[in-house]
Design brief:
The protein is an alpha+beta fold. Helix content is about 55%, strand content about 15%. Helix 5 runs antiparallel to helix 16.
């Protein structure tokens, strides 16, 4: 709706809820080792988290937990091969392992500094429960800037109906509507909720400023959840408590981060900002958009105007100072590259604002990670264990990419395949499709077949070279209550905050679905 909220809110929006394991009442310790693959271990919690939030195709197979474990073992075998190939020394792996360790250490700082201070009173919980029972349905008109928002407001004042303006907008109506509870609205966007709270049903707001534009909101309906059963009441109460804790934690975290930022007084340097903006525009915007928004592609040097790509000197320009420290354009671009943030593109103002927000976020990340490392939180057992798990995943990805890069599909192979299917490949006009029309499909099919064969041979070799030990009694205990689910659906849980936005749990690659054992 109004975006994700302030950068402070985004930074601390962590996922610390316990995963709903399928075998949640087993008496076994969740750190018990299910399997060892060379130097890598797979603990009970690793397996259950990976299975719970992994691809759905495995859950539809017979003996799904063992099949999932087999794929985890395959990935760790390939990770060991990546180490043999010294892929662990590549920037792709090193930078991301470091970023993940930093993120996990900051998680510990969040638990220590924020969550430990969150307490709920009975009165607060009762109030939150009432808000959780109140539902609200909203719709809004969007404008990229204040001038267009005022035009919409003037049209409403002149007699245009909200519904007619709502339908006339180009984007999907579902992108401009929301049904939620009052509690969820207050937790996710307290400033927006405060403005909406003043509206009566069918009343339209004045333009409300958001991070990427302006919003004119109408409250379509407000209603209270009907009488609840005891089970429904307890669930709603638990959900309300969770939401209230999150809201309190967000406020405390905001105060903590703002205090850190005030202490170092960060300042963005104009030249560095303009260079960063030009780099990001060159990577993410079309040429027409760059011209329309007047984002330059050349900058003045002693030798005259030069394009960004022509001189390394641009990367050494100061971008932001904080305290006695300076971050360069180069620091930001490396930090940004491995995180792959999505910048706003709805307008020049939104794009500029999102670039600045990302710069502030980099400074915040640095401050929080420095504090976490100063306290030694990166050495905690939990951080080391989870970093180890993520490292295995990154090494696997590096090995899989190296393997794919070794595959070559000759054009002669594609032409031979085309000759075999030519008479059967008919277009809409009933005539055979040309080689050029089917070449990409033939290449994809041939590539996938060669990749499967290469994977199979590689894994056979790796299983002979490395020790693989499965704790069969533990696996049987975990499997005892596991059932195949022929109707399983995909479920991905993301951790949008912290210093390294990512999926919450490392799980197996979806591409294993096309790999037959």
């Amino acid at each position: 709706m109004m975006g994700e909220g302030s950068m402070v809110g985004i930074l601390w929006m962590f996922l610390f809820t316990s995963s709903p394991h399928t075998v949640s009442d087993t008496p076994l310790e969740d750190t018990s080792v299910v399997a060892t693959v060379g130097r890598f271990t797979i603990a009970q919690r690793d397996l259950l988290d990976s299975y719970e939030f992994g691809p759905a195709f495995v859950k539809r197979l017979p003996d799904p937990l063992r099949r999932h474990l087999d794929y985890m073992i395959d990935e760790r075998l390939l990770a060991l091969d990546a180490e043999r190939l010294r892929l662990d020394t590549t920037a792709f792996v090193r930078e991301r392992v470091a970023a993940l360790e930093e993120d996990l250490a900051v998680d510990e700082l969040y638990r220590e500094e924020i969550l430990s201070r969150v307490h709920l009173s009975d009165a607060e919980l009762d109030t939150a429960l009432q808000k959780a029972r109140m539902h609200v349905r909203l719709r809004w008109l969007y404008a990229p800037d204040k001038r267009n928002a005022e035009r919409l407001r003037a049209r409403l004042a002149a007699g245009a109906t909200f519904d007619s303006l709502f339908v006339a907008m180009k984007d999907s109506p579902s992108d401009r509507s929301l049904e939620t509870t009052v509690l969820s609205l207050e937790v996710n966007n307290p400033e927006f909720a405060s403005a909406v709270r003043q509206l009566r049903v069918q009343e339209t707001s004045a333009p409300l400023a958001g991070p990427d534009g302006y919003y004119i909101v109408r409250v379509d309906q407000i209603w209270q959840h009907p009488v609840l059963t005891e089970t429904e009441y307890e669930k709603l109460r638990a959900d309300a408590a969770s939401a209230l804790r999150a809201a309190k934690a967000s406020r405390l975290a905001g105060e903590y981060v703002k205090g850190k930022m005030r202490g170092v007084n960060p300042v963005i340097k104009a030249e560095g900002y303009n260079i960063v903006r030009a780099y990001l525009a060159d990577k993410g915007l079309s040429r027409d958009t760059r011209v329309k928004w007047n984002i330059p592609s050349t900058f003045m040097t002693e030798a005259g105007p030069m394009p960004l790509s022509a001189s390394e000197a641009f990367l050494s320009r100061p971008l932001v100072t904080y305290g006695a420290r300076t971050l360069l354009v180069r620091d930001y671009l490396r930090w940004f590259d491995i995180r792959q943030f999505q910048l706003k593109r709805t307008s020049l103002a939104a794009f500029n604002a999102s670039v600045k927000q990302a710069i502030w976020k980099m400074v915040q990340d640095r401050l929080l990670s420095e504090e976490a490392y100063r306290r030694g939180l990166h050495t905690r057992t939990n951080v080391r264990r989870e970093t180890h798990t993520w490292e295995a995943k990154l090494l696997y990805l590096a090995a899989r990419r190296r393997l794919q890069q070794s595959i070559v599909v000759p054009d002669s192979t594609l032409r031979a395949a085309y000759e075999r299917i030519r008479k059967r490949s008919l277009g809409q006009n009933g005539k055979p499709l040309s080689f050029e029309e089917v070449r990409d499909a033939l290449w994809a099919e041939s590539f996938a077949e060669r990749e499967r064969e290469l994977l199979f041979r590689t894994l056979q070799t790796l299983r002979r070279e490395h020790s693989v030990v499965i704790n069969e009694p533990l696996l049987r205990a975990l499997t005892a209550r596991m059932q195949r689910d022929p109707h399983a659906i995909e479920l991905k849980v993301y951790k949008p905050g912290g210093t390294f936005p990512r999926v919450a749990f490392p799980t197996i690659d979806e591409r294993w679905q096309s790999f037959t054992r």
